[in-house]
Amino acid sequence: MKLFKGSSGIVKLSRGFGRKGYSLPDKPWLVVAWKELLEALRDKRTMINVVLLPMIIMPIVIALPMMMLNPKTVPPKILVVVEDKEAIDLARSIKKLHNESGAYVSITANGGNYANLILNRGIDLIVEILPGFSRNISLGKSGYIIYYYDPYGTRSSVAMSMVQEIIEKYSERILNERLAAVNLSERYIRPIDTIVKQITSTGKVATTSEVMTAMILPMMVGLIAITGAGTFAIDMIAGERERKTIEALFTAPVSRGEILLGKFSALTILSIVSGISTLLSALIGIGLAVTSLVEATSVAHPQISQLIEASKLPYVTAGILITVALGGLTGNAIMVIAASFAKTFKEAQQYVGFLTFILILPMIAIPYAPQSIYSILRILPISSLAMFARDIIVNPGDIMPVTTSLASSIIYLVAFLWLSSKMFGRESVIYG
Question: What ranges do the domains of the chain cover?
Answer without folding.
Answer: 27-42+200-431, 75-188
